[in-house]
Write a structure and sequence with these properties.
Blueprint (H helix, E strand, L loop, with lengths): L1 E5 L6 H12 L3 E3 H10 L3 H11 L6 H12 L8 E4 L5 H9 L6 E6 L2 H9 L1 E3 L6 E3 L26 H15 L1 H11 L4 E6 L4 H13 L3
Parallel strand pairs: 1-3, 1-4, 2-3, 4-7
Antiparallel strand pairs: 5-6
Helix pairs in contact: 1-9, 2-3, 6-7
The structure holds BIS(adenosine)-5'-pentaphosphate and magnesium ion.
The site of magnesium ion has 6 residues, from α1.
Length: about 220
């Protein structure tokens, strides 16, 4: 199973990815999490990416495609994978086509901008794993601590309201054309394409995704 989750910042891609990856037993490949790890470890890529990420600007297609190619060559990807936050531009999606990396399903999560801005201010993240929480909608068992490791949660640098607005603009300009790109492949019966609203609870969104995927069986 090879899945892409598509949607604006804060749509709940990372949140839904956790459930789907457990259900299908596939690795969660989040380019955002990989980049944040590189920033944390102060690698060459991390040093290059930090300022761009903090400002909500995309990293170059060449760098991202290289990163993803290397990741999916690992043995845990043999049975499939879930891409979260990739592809994010038409050239990134085209790079998959050019390399004959086929995709089984694209899941689009739709959430209105206003809801997103409110959500981001309450997001908390576990830096080690990329697990996401929300202080109201998806709180950790112990305030400020990761459920699995008990380590501290942090706020993401790019979750400031001004930066979130810039990220929404970047999504609109550079990523939303992928909706059309994958809808066309759906019409050609190259993949499954489903669209869900991301405004109900995380559990309801997951069950809607799973039931829509089943309709194709
Ligand atoms: P990335 O980390 O991918 O960020 P993003 O796409 O902007 O998305 P987010 O992670 O902010 O949101 P999400 O949809 O995962 O939502 P979440 O589940 O956390 O990218 C960051 C940066 O890295 C980019 O700006 C760019 O610079 C760079 N980058 C990454 N990939 C790249 C690429 N391919 N090319 C170029 N550059 C790249 O949920 C959000 C909050 O809402 C959480 O608090 C959560 O608990 C809560 N929540 C989730 N679902 C619900 C629900 N149903 N109801 C209520 N609350 C909910
Ligand atoms: Mg995410």
């Amino acid at each position: 199973m090879r899945i892409i989750i598509l949607g604006p910042p804060g749509a709940g891609k990372g949140t839904q990815a956790e459930t789907l990856c457990k259900t299908f037993n596939i690795p969660h490949i989040s380019t955002g999490n990989m980049l944040r790890e590189a920033v944390e470890e102060e690698t060459e890529l991390g040093l290059e990416a930090k300022a761009l990420m903090d400002a909500g600007i995309l990293i170059s297609d060449k760098v991202i495609v290289g990163l993803v190619e290397e990741r999916i060559s690992k043995s845990d990807c043999v049975k499939g994978f879930l891409f979260d936050g990739f592809p994010r531009t038409i050239p990134q999606a085209q790079a998959l086509v050019d390399r004959a990396i086929s995709i089984d399903a694209v899941i689009e999560i739709h959430v209105p901008d206003q809801v997103i801005i409110e959500r981001m201010s309450g997001r908390r993240m576990h830096p080690g794993s990329g697990r996401n929480y929300h202080i109201v909608y998806n709180p950790p068992k112990i305030d400020g601590k990761d459920d699995i490791t008990g380590e501290d949660l942090v706020q993401r640098e790019d979750d400031k309201p001004e930066t979130v607005k810039d990220r929404l603009k970047v999504y609109e300009d550079q990523t939303s054309p992928l909706i059309n790109f994958y809808s066309e492949l759906f019409k050609l019966e190259k993949l499954k394409y489903i669209k869900v609203s991301g405004t109900s609870s995380p559990e309801q969104v997951s069950s809607e995704i799973l039931s829509k995927l089943k309709e194709f069986d």
